[in-house]
């Protein structure tokens, strides 16, 4: 008989911190449009956009509601007193310059800010505007991407080298035979593997890791393990005509260096004009510009991409008082998902009454979903599916 597949192999641990309140940080060179982007995203002037490098010094944080048709539909159905959509927490930051890993610009403080988040929105400047100073002298997104990627990697190398030193020092005291010594040797081998990958110019999230290695990587909280969504900031004109001399090259750079990372072209200049418009005005604007019917803003797409890059999904709780989306990490089990609402729901978890969004949409009401036998009682082992509608039951 072939050996049974171990549970461990079928269930892959994810890179990154566990948890449901994950954050992305906007990263990029100075003066590429980060704060202006952040402002439009949060519809506030928190980011202090200004036409000079390093206009942003203190990080600013905003919670960005996720566009969500399922949520809108549920609100229509339940007509609740309170509506709470899913959010992505997004933070603005000062610009990063070449040499940051060794302390240039606002170097080390900057990199420690990046360490504190889970994902990265990297704003890449591809708009020409002589009025807006470029710290490197001219517009060259590939050079800029190379600078950021190098700084993040150099910082990781420094971090990993320190850890390796620590491991080697401790190893002597442990001797060779104990269990602890064996574990230490395994950890050292993994850290050496990480270092080799980084030294080869690759980002940690692009490596091939088994679960044990992922746990060690997660413990190190490395910068290049965090997912990146590349946001290419175009002039409004280029965004509208979907043409820019850099776009194909940027795509090529990502394919070569970080295959699979999302690339989203947008225009901060256009977003700034749209931000004060009503929905109808935005649709009219799209028509005027010759863009596809609907809202011409890329912000919804960007927020969704950031959320997805963090492996986040959401479930809903619905009733006349409130329709609410709860963000959880993919792979989460029912009790932990319930615990996002209240720790008692997790500690005294009994079961969940769960239906899928699709079933509710098909049958039109909870009662009919129940009549169709599709409202199910789920126990502790149940893994939440994106779009589940849950009602938790817990003991006294
Ligand atoms: N697509 C665009 N077209 C034209 N100008 C733009 C575009 N995007 C941003 N700008 C302009 O670039 C300037 C710098 O923007 P912003 O302050 O947002 O940059 P930043 O990346 O936050 O800079 P810092 O690193 O200094 O905080 C602003 O004057 C802004 O209006
Ligand atoms: Mg700024």
Automatic annotation (TrEMBL):
Keyword ATP-binding attributed: yes
Location of this chain's protein in the cell: Cytoplasm
Keyword Hydrolase annotated: yes
Positions with a binding annotation for ATP: 31-36, 234
Positions of the OBG-type G domain: 22-286
A GO term from the CC aspect: cytoplasm
Listed SUPFAM superfamilies: P-loop containing nucleoside triphosphate hydrolases, TGS-like
Keywords tagged on the record: ATP-binding, Cytoplasm, Hydrolase, Nucleotide-binding
Top-level taxonomic group: Eukaryota
Listed GO MF terms: ATP binding; ATP hydrolysis activity; GTP binding; ribosomal large subunit binding
Domain called TGS: residue spans: 311-394
Gene3D superfamilies per UniProt: 3.10.20.30, P-loop containing nucleotide triphosphate hydrolases, TGS-like domain
Family from the record: Belongs to the TRAFAC class OBG-HflX-like GTPase superfamily. OBG GTPase family. YchF/OLA1 subfamily.
Function as written in the Swiss-Prot or TrEMBL entry: Hydrolyzes ATP, and can also hydrolyze GTP with lower efficiency. Has lower affinity for GTP.
Entry protein name: Obg-like ATPase 1
